[in-house]
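Summary of Year 1 activities. Much of the first year was spent building the evaluation harness for sequence design. The harness presents a backbone, in tokenized form, and records the residue chosen at every position. We chose the following record to illustrate the format because it has been used consistently in internal testing since the harness was completed.
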């Protein structure tokens, strides 16, 4: 009676193939996670910019076009500011100029310049979001 099973060399070859596949797939998956966070943050940024534009248009139709002094939850249908997936925050920090250098913040997901209506996203330090 002959025993059936895999030889040691067959098992080693399967493990080598799985190792090569894992070495190729894992870095691509990690990169996709970062890209997904960037895309989600860009979507939230678009929503905030649209809300600011709507508030500006409302004030313009009332006779005095002005950007809102701050971004509030009243601008959004669900009553919540979008979350920046890059750092996990929803709060907005008012500023007088576009932040420069590494755009990190310990307590805000977004920056807003009320004089010009410009809005941007803070990051976790890995992505410069000043030109979005």
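For this record, the design step produced the sequence shown next.
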């Amino acid at each position: 009676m002959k025993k059936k099973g895999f030889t040691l060399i067959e098992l080693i070859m399967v493990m080598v193939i799985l190792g090569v596949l894992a070495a190729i797939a894992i870095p691509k998956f990690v990169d996709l996670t970062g890209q997904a966070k960037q895309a989600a943050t860009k979507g939230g940024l678009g929503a905030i910019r649209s809300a600011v534009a709507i508030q500006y248009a409302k004030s313009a139709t009332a006779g005095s076009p002005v950007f809102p002094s701050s971004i509030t939850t009243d601008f959004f249908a669900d009553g919540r500011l979008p979350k920046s997936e890059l750092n996990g925050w929803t709060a907005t920090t008012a500023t007088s100029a576009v932040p420069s250098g590494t755009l990190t913040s310990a307590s805000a997901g977004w920056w807003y310049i009320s004089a010009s209506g410009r809005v941007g996203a803070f990051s976790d330090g890995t992505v410069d979001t000043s030109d979005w």
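DSSP finds one helix and three strands in the chain. Quantitative recovery figures across the full test set are reported in Table 2.
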